[in-house]
Amino acid sequence: MLFVTGATGHLGNVLVKSLNNKLEKIKVLVHPKDNLISLQNIPLEVVYNDITNDFSSALKNVECVFHLASLISITPFNKKLIYKTNVGGTVNVVNLCKKFKIPLVYVSSVHALAEVPRGSIVDEHIPVDENKVKGDYAKSKALATKYVLKAFKEGLEGYIVFPTGICGPFDYKLSHFSRVLVKYKERKLKIAVEGKFDFVDVRDVVRAIVALYEILKTKHYPVNHQSYIVSGNNVHFELLPILCGLENYKVLDNFSSNIISYLSLFANCVFGIRTEFLPYALHTISMNYKYCCNKLKETIEYHPKKFEKSVQDFFDWFYSNSINNNTSKTYQKI
Question: Could you tell me which residue, 267 or 251, shows the higher pLDDT?
Answer without folding.
Answer: 251
